[in-house]
Structures are given as structure tokens and as C-alpha cells.
Amino acid sequence: MSGIDRDLVAALRAEVAAVDPARPCDRAAELAGLGTLLVTREAAVARLAVRLGGHATATRPHAVRHTIALPPGEFSWVGSADHCRLAWLRGRFLARGSLSLAAGRAHLEFVVAQDEAEELAAHLADLGLPASWRVRRGAGVVTWKSAEAIAAFLGHVGASAALLELEARGVARSLRGELNRVINAESANLQRSVAAAGRQLAAIEQLDGDGRLSEQPRTVRAVAEARRETPEASLSEIAARLDLHRSAVQRALDRVERLALHDDEGIGQRRRHRPSGMAGEAAGGRRAGRGSQGGGPRGRAESSSPLA
């Protein structure tokens, strides 16, 4: 975790440890949740254990870890009120729970005795907070990886202010992710638009250079001219400028690119638009050519007469 994440987790645990149960039954339940021997690095948790009746064992001065011996407490989940159950869970979290916020993901787990893991998971499910459990290196581990479940649990055990900060960070992270997604999508769209405009301008110049652009329908010529005058314009902007549908502008530019890539289509266009007089002269020339080669019956008869 980063330093900011560690500070937030420390503040959250300190806030939970600062909760002072008002009911004697809650104090007894939380004491039972802490266990009979508490070893912690957190001063706030150590102070809570002392408030609930524990006493510090002999330690070296300025010791990093605090070791608190607690009187044995009894707690039965069955038949206890919800506030007593939450007090007991608060004690288990402070004694055996850990929270990680690394890489923007929340992970909360309880490391307990192997035979307690399944029972603790069942207790959490009773409160509508189902958790998974497994055995890891001989210990039972009860885990949440859902941010919603973790936030609900922390709210139940009293971490209100720190929980708001955690949720605010989650919202900010979600907004940053959405903003990055939108920016990336817009950047990709802009790159595609620039590349398409470059292809279209090159195709227009090619068709204009070989005279095929002037043979195109009026709409195609108008769209080509608008694209040449405003290379940065979008299809919608060109359509609004020419009072056309966007689909008509798209079809016209697609036609321009297709003609530039396939010269035979342009040749076919020129042949279809050739004046009728030129077509007649070409047909007459072909007929004259066939006659000069003796292709018809009369030609064959004339050529064979001297040999008769």
C-alpha cells in the first residue's frame, strides 16, 4: 500500500477502536472478541483493551508492539442481540482483522484459528455479509474482496468518518477511470477522423487531377469541394453546411475513395458517358475494319473469283 492508503487504514482502525460501548453487554461482547491475549502495534487498540479491563504485560520501554492480557470473556452468538453481535465483531476485527487498499482495491480478512473460520463466516452471513473462508498455512482465513461488503461491515462496527473518506476516494477513482475512458475514446475517434480526412483529400486530388471528379454527380462534387475547403470538418458539419443527410455525405466520400483505388470504375464511367456520335464513329470504324479483313461472305467471294 502507499503511504496515503496506510494512513487511511490506520485512521479507520483508530476510529473503530475509539468506539466506547455504552451497554455492559456490549463491553463484555467486545472484550470476548478481542480474546485473552492481544498483541498489537496500534496504540488506539491497546488503549481500548485497557479500558475494557486488560492490563499490559511487562515489555521493554518504547516497545513497538503492545501486549495486553485480558480477562476471559464469554459470548454466545445464538440468542444475542444484534448490537452485542456487532460489538463482538468489532473486537474480532481489531484483534484478528486486517484491511488492505493496495492498487485501488479493498481487501479485508480475519486470520483466526482453523476451527473458527467456518463459524465466523456463518456469523457474518447471518448479518447479510457473506464472506469466503479457507485454510492458509494452518490458520483459518475469512475474506471479503467486495468493496460494498467491506463498506457495509465497517459502517456497522462504527467507522463512519473514515468510511466516508474511503467511499469518496472510491468515487474519485471511478470518475478518473471514466474520464480516462472517455478521453481515450475521443482521442481514438479523432485519430480515425484525421486519417479518414487525409485519405479523402488524397483521393479528391487524384480524381481532380485525371478529370474523373468532374464526371461525378453534383452531390459528390459538392461534398468533395466542401471536404477540400474544410479538411478538419466532421461528416455532420459537412452535411449541415450542404443541407444533406450525413449518410449522403458518407456515401459520396466512400465513392471518391473507391474510385481513387479502382481505376477501372472510372474508365467504365467515362465509357458510359461518351457522346453518341463518338460511339457511332467507333462502331463504324470497327465495321470497316472487319470488312477490310474479308470477314463477310461478299469479301470471301470477291477474293476467290480470280482463282476460279
Kindly summarize this structure in a few lines.
By secondary structure, this protein is of the alpha+beta class. It has helices at residues 3-17, 24-34, 43-51, 82-96, 114-126, 147-157, 161-209, 218-229, 235-242, 246-261, 263-272, 276-292, 297-304; strands at 37-40, 55-56, 66-69, 97-100, 107-112, 132-136, 139-144. It has two domains: 3-159, Endonuclease I-creI (Roll), CATH 3.10.28.10; 160-273, no CATH class.
Layout of helices and strands, plus pairs?
Blueprint: H1 3-17, H2 24-34, E1 37-40, H3 43-51, E2 55-56, E3 66-69, H4 82-96, E4 97-100, E5 107-112, H5 114-126, E6 132-136, E7 139-144, H6 147-157, H7 161-209, H8 218-229, H9 235-242, H10 246-261, H11 263-272, H12 276-292, H13 297-304
Antiparallel strand pairs: 1-3, 2-3, 4-5, 5-7, 6-7
The biggest beta sheet reads: 4 strands, antiparallel
* Main CATH class of the largest domain: Alpha Beta
**Poorly predicted ranges:** 264-308
Question: In total, how many domains does the architecture comprise?
Answer: 2
The outline comes out as rod-shaped
Briefly note the CATH topology name of the largest domain. Answer: Endonuclease I-creI
Please report the number of helical segments.
Answer: 13
| CATH superfamily label of the largest domain | Homing endonucleases
CATH architecture of the largest domain: Roll
Q: Mean pLDDT, rounded to whole units?
A: 81
Strand content: 5-15%
Q: What spatial order of strands do you see in the largest sheet?
A: 4-5-7-6
Fraction of residues in helices? 55-70%
